[in-house]
């Protein structure tokens, strides 16, 4: 979310409340881990660094959906909603720890990724064994710790709620975690597949977008907020109608930023998604256009360059130029605009009160128009 929009997640002390819940959880984790062994403090430090850097976007969608469905600031349920937001942030941290290992990413939010930090520490201390394997192993454990933490925080969030409300909210949270895991698997599978037909490549890319990111980034947090407010099935269905197109637009913007974004703003090196071989809608569209135009050289460049871990700055620039020149970037921008229009239409169909409606529109705009 652009810095100019950071105040959106400060409204009604949302960020303060979520950060306080995260701080309490990290403190409990530190006490427990260091009781087991003083050496475990490094694990907690890494978890703390990861959760400190989030935009709190998912927590904001959850909170303001709760407000849109009758939640009142300062009432007995507000702390539970803020804790649910903290649980979403902890789950995101778990996903990022694991995702960075699977993608072998070098930076996250402008800082070295956890597996690289621990690998470098291993190499610098003269320990036995392979530094990379050590770093990867620690990062996997960090993801597991954050996953456990997210479950614990959600359990606390639901304590004391009516059984039906707690069950509905827990069902949303469970489905989200399963779907993200399956989506990550589909992403890994996609990167191993040979290039197919244009329709197959884009279908697979859109499938990954929905399962791995769109629902977990936007749809499920909005639905979770409604569930915590005790919303009925019709209201929940309305949340899904808003959240899915917005979540897709959010991820498609992320795909564009992964290629065209300013590394100083995104916190990731330019071209990382290309080196990692991400089978995005952007790449699928470029390949489709190059194939349709009979541009064999462009097709060969895409198939050779996307997924090349040794791609240098010149190679990234060449591929980026091709993505623009084929019209793929313009296509994805158009898809984002269409999804944005669907989102606004669905929000207009909801009878959400102010200030929740206006804030959710602003959050949606920030998610789609962001530069990081």
Q: What is the strand tally?
A: 2
What is the total number of structural domains? 1
Task: Give the name of the CATH superfamily.
Answer: Farnesyl Diphosphate Synthase
Structural class: mainly alpha
In the CATH hierarchy, the architecture is Orthogonal Bundle
Mean pLDDT: 92
The major beta sheet can be summarized as: 2 strands, antiparallel
Please name the CATH topology: Farnesyl Diphosphate Synthase
Give the helices and strands as they follow along the chain: HHHHEEHHHHHHHHHHHH
Shape designation: globular
Q: Please indicate the percent range of residues in DSSP E strands (runs of 2 or more).
A: under 5%
- End-to-end Cα distance, whole Å, is 6 Å
How much is the radius of gyration in Å? 21 Å
Unreliable segments of 5+ consecutive residues: none
* Adjacency order of strands in the biggest sheet: 1-2
Number of discrete helical segments:
16
Roughly how much helix do the residues carry, as a percent range? Answer: over 70%
Question: Can you tell me the CATH class?
Answer: Mainly Alpha
InterPro entries: Isoprenoid_synthase_dom_sf (IPR008949), Polyprenyl_synt (IPR000092), Polyprenyl_synt_CS (IPR033749)
GO biological process, one term: isoprenoid biosynthetic process
Keywords: Magnesium, Metal-binding, Transferase
Family: Belongs to the FPP/GGPP synthase family.
